[in-house]
Input
Amino acid sequence: MDSSAVIDLCRNALLSALIIASPMLLAGMAVGLIVGLIQALTQVQDQTVSFVPKLIAMAVVLVVCLPWLIGRMVEFTETVFLSAGVP
Output
């Protein structure tokens, strides 16, 4: 395996990790923004109030997207094995 193949493999690994993590991160960011706006409007400044909705939203997104996420991980693993020459 030459250096360009290793670089492509690392690039694909980072891109796959970003794609796999993005649904949960986007859900946490959206819920955090909404809860932050509600806290600013009501002047309730408690850190635990924002943690629980983010956790619930990320868990729901994980359950909903799990088949797609597993498919992406299997696809990446097959690509790695094929590029390494494993039959």
